[in-house]
Description:
heterodimer, A: alpha/beta, 11-stranded mixed sheet, 14 helices, B: mainly alpha, Histone, subunit A, 3 helices, 4% strand
Amino acid sequence: MIESVPDTIEKLxxxxxxxxxxxxxxxxxxxxxxxxxxxxxxxxxxxxxDSAYSQAKKMDKVxxxxxxxxxxxxxxxxxxxxxxxxxxKGIRTTAGSKVLQSYVPPYSSTVVMKLLSAGAIMIxxxxxxxxxxxxxGENSDYGPTKNPWNKKYVPGGSSSGAAVSxxxxxxxxxxxxxxGGSVRQPASFTNLVGLKPTYGLVSRYGVVAMASSLDTIGxxxxxxxxxxxxxxxxxxxxxxxxxxxxEKGEKIGEKIKIGIPKEYFGEGLDLEVREIIxxxxxxxxxxxxxxxxxxxxxxEYAVPVYYVIQPAEVSxxxxxxxxVRYGNDRDSFGSEARRRIMLGTYVLSEGYRDAYYxxxxxxxxKISDDFDHVFVDVDAILCxxxxxxxxxLGEKANDPLKMYLADIYTASASLAGIPGLSIPAGFTKDKRxxxxxxxxxxxxxxxxxxxxxxxxxLTNYHLEKPVI
Amino acid sequence: MTKVDSSDIAKxxxxxxxxxxxxxxxxxxxxxxxxxxxxxKLGEIETEKIEPMSQVTGLSQxxxxxxxxxxxxxxxxxxxxxxxxxxxxxxxxDALIDKGEDMKND
Lengths: 468, 106
């Protein structure tokens, strides 16, 4: 039995090529850990043991066959979990909701197909806030997921189980979705690298839709270099998602300049988080990166805009769940889904559409323009991912507005459709992880990866693991 | 401060096809009022000359040939696999216009 798995895909594949272990042994390792530890964390809803072993055997055959190249199988042997929003042919997909309790999809999403063709091995489907509605994982109809760094705390959400599956070593990487922060915020709470790509870069085909003008497919890894490798596989036009564009980003120059938005360091920011982010800035300054204070004046309007546009689109997307073609009927929706359907229907209803929905779309333009102005002068923006470290289970569960405000530093980038990368930046005194967020111009993920890799060469936060 | 009262909630629930209990109506009335009051903050911004932004890519009219893609076409049995209520290869739905028992699921 393998004792531990290397930190990066490159090292993992070196081990496979040297025959230190096989793909089947990697699956043994992760399944064993899931069986041993996940009952107290609740990160998985379905374990796909049979398909994991059959894919592992197939990949071992490729490895033993000799004549293959890693460019053909860039993710050879990489064990992956999928948030339970990704349709997986023949494997139950619930979206964390009782509505889809027994739904078995007849096809797989593009991203699932792409990862499996690249040699990755699916280990299972992870827990999440039902329909991806939440910032804590507590809105799952299958019980909350716990944070492995301290089980009294939430792991963040909505991609709660996805984050925990990687931080607890139940999976090498995890796929999630980020509509308003659902990859970046749990990455910050669990000491992982979390990417929300540019809107229009990764296909959403076959992924349960939440808010279609905002939804993106992101992923969790331990390192920035692996985040780049996963995006190289997931990105690109598939002809099934008509919002995809084939744009390429710019190369980063010799002299890197980063903007610090003053609005992200004001009232509401936890003091320990603030200190950690300021220290991260000092670390990068020593490497010769220039920093400049910038302003995103409409930041305080991002959450109100987001909580009009997002529920409006949610109410429309969830109208297809009528219990006829698949799933249970509408009585099976949990309370947060009902709340968002109600809110969305209200802001779209006669007499209120102009005052709320139209108004929000106009302010969205202003928020997006703020970023465009700033990126004329800087390569990236650096700010906290979330205003606080992980909060306690139950702390915000009865106050929806308080929970919505957890999205305060992530919602703007979603509205503007720009990429965001959360990177481990340190720990609070009581050892809760804190992430910093790099935001960039559309399709400029590579710049964020370059800066992030530089930071991870200078720090070891990402190598620390929770004691489960 | 009640912005969204019980009758508003009842009307929205009907539009959204949700059955709410009387407790739900009270809870949602208070929670939605609270959230809407917060959203009213948007009124502070002058937006008269601003074009609404409904999407971020700037793409329009993404079209392809209208031909079927065999490997991506579900068979009738796959398409029906998510329900137990089928009849002669069709989905069975509840009657929309209630004319009595004879119109219900055959």
